[in-house]
Amino acid sequence: MDDALNNMFEDEAMMKSRKVIVWGQDDLLSWAVNFFLTARKDWEVLSFSSDLGIDFLIRQVEDLRPDVVVVYQTKCVNSARMLMQLFYTRPELTMITVDPQENTMEVYNKKQILVKRVSDLISVVEGQYHPVH
């Protein structure tokens, strides 16, 4: 019985493999993004209103340690300070900004790459770098 209980807890822990924070306005777009993200059973999705401010978001990232943060581009989200603070807090973080006006998104993540050949640098600039493990 103990083994079955331990397996159940391990399975549940593995299901929540990704933690995502969605930070934006309380509107239809926010609802839709949350709907699609929460459909994945292996993701834990937490939503916060952008009305709470950037400092609130930074504290949540520090406390909750998400893998991904999705934010909606607004005049305050276009701040380089916020991006730098979030990456300082969580270097492995992936940040996605969504611009509903332009129907685009931008993906930011900090990567550290060991350069072994000059071609590594060239391939990163070209967007073609695929690390070999």
Kindly list the characteristics that best describe this protein:
133 residues, alpha/beta, 5 helices, 41% helix
Give the SSE layout.
Elements: H1 2-15, E1 18-24, H2 28-38, E2 43-49, H3 54-64, E3 68-72, H4 80-89, E4 94-99, E5 104-109, H5 118-126
Parallel strand pairs: 1-2, 1-3, 3-4
Antiparallel strand pairs: 4-5
Helix pairs in contact: 3-4
Structure description:
The chain is 41% helix and 23% strand. The chain is built from 5 helices and 5 strands. It has helices spanning 2-15, 28-38, 54-64, 80-89, 118-126; strands at 18-24, 43-49, 68-72, 94-99, 104-109. It has a 5-stranded mixed sheet with strand order 2-1-3-4-5, with helices on both faces. Strand 3, helix 4 and strand 4 form a beta-alpha-beta unit. Helix 3 (54-64) runs parallel beside helix 4 (80-89). The longest helix is centred in the first third of the chain and has 14 residues, at 2-15. The protein is globular. The model has no long low-confidence stretch (mean pLDDT 76).
